[in-house]
Specification:
Elements: E1 7-14, H1 18-29, E2 34-38, E3 58-59, H2 70-77, H3 81-91, E4 96-99, E5 102-105, H4 110-123, E6 127-130, E7 133-139, E8 152-159, H5 172-183, E9 187-199, H6 206-212, E10 217-222, E11 226-230, H7 243-247, E12 251-260, E13 263-275, E14 278-280, H8 282-288, E15 296-300, H9 307-321, H10 337-347, H11 353-362, E16 364-371, E17 379-383, E18 389-390, E19 395-396, E20 402-404, H12 418-435
Helix pairs in contact: 1-4, 1-12, 9-11, 10-11
Organism: Collinsella tanakaei YIT 12063
Protein name: RsdA/BaiN/AoA(So)-like Rossmann fold-like domain-containing protein
Pfam family, one: HI0933_like
Length: about 425
Amino acid sequence: MNARPQTRYDVAIIGGGASGLAAAIAAGRAGASVCVLERDVACGLPILATGNGRCNLSNAQLDSRRYYNAAAAKAVLGRDGASRAEAFFDSLGLMTCEVEGRLYPITRRAETVRDCLLGACERLGVDMRCGVELQGAALDPAIAPDAAGGAWILDTSEPQRPVYVHGDQSDRAALRRARKTLAGAQMAQRQIRARSLVIAVGGSSHDICDMLDIPHVDEEPVLCPIAGTLARPGNSADAGNDPLDALDGLRLEAMLTLKRKGACIAYEEGEVLLRPYGISGIAVFNLSRRCQAGDLIEMDLFPACNNDQLAHTLRAREQHVGPWNGEATWFDGVLPRALASYACECVNGAGDAIAASAALLHRITLRVTGTCEHQQAQVRRGGIPFSSIDADTLAVTSRPNLFACGEALDQDADCGGYNLGWAWLSGLRAGEAASR
């Protein structure tokens, strides 16, 4: 394998995702020479999938209480985090707009965000090296951490010739072709030196933490569907019957209450998608960060009224559709047929079926067995613990000139722009500190 002379930088960033690119821009703007080492065929590709391709940049109110490590979020985001995130994108030339409390690019297209980030890096002279595998990282024992020339030595494996994505980088076929080319490319062993190192590898930081011998919390997927079982009708003849099978694909607007041992743990409101394994949807994803096996999730389909009010409304229907008859068609105009059938099975035989229906529609209950469909998870919990981090600089306290940002840290938050807001602002903080 061919080699080339050692290359020196002020700041080397491991990972070219959202937080890594923000760190690169911050360090470059501070006057540092910067390189980004990215494993994939191009930088910023995960950004293309955010917000269903629209890229929900941030929440308009980055409330630290929405984060797993609220104290760390408060230290990094401060009181004006959303304003600073918006100012960052304005400095890139990206026009934004607010939609229902969330910040989006005005184009509503994630590739616009990526293009602006990459354009800023190019203007700053950031060296974006793609297809790179980091094979070793160590402090140079012969050089003091603050000496000119750099303290970190990085051993890498890189393609001898650059691998390009030919065509639209949001085109999956083009990406598959480029990744196939990368997998078969001849690699060269190279070495890089840098004064400071920033870890921005996303939700898979175990390997680099092991390489650098720094603490790590095992990662687990969050913001994903919830698995569980729906209460079976009391008169169901088939004890093995799962009501969710018949409700598969049904979408409902509901207020969700997460309960544990009778206590209310959290509330979420929004669309719920019923699946054979349980429930999905953004409101469900948020509860997945907090739920445990054995918890109950109560789905209230009519949160604007209480049981008595809903029962009164249902009784008034008898004037128009006839007396209660136990048939699913009686709920036409109120419930989808599949859900109406489930409701009828649950309440038929009750002394007052209409009152029982009102109670059921306020508390359709799922018993949680865990989370599932982890390949859909938007983020992962775990990574470098904040007990090992200086919150002011995001420096790893056990190693000189080593910083971390984004999902590499043990931080996650609700849907709605909170996680990307963290990525941008933690990346900016780490990049600025690394440049110093």
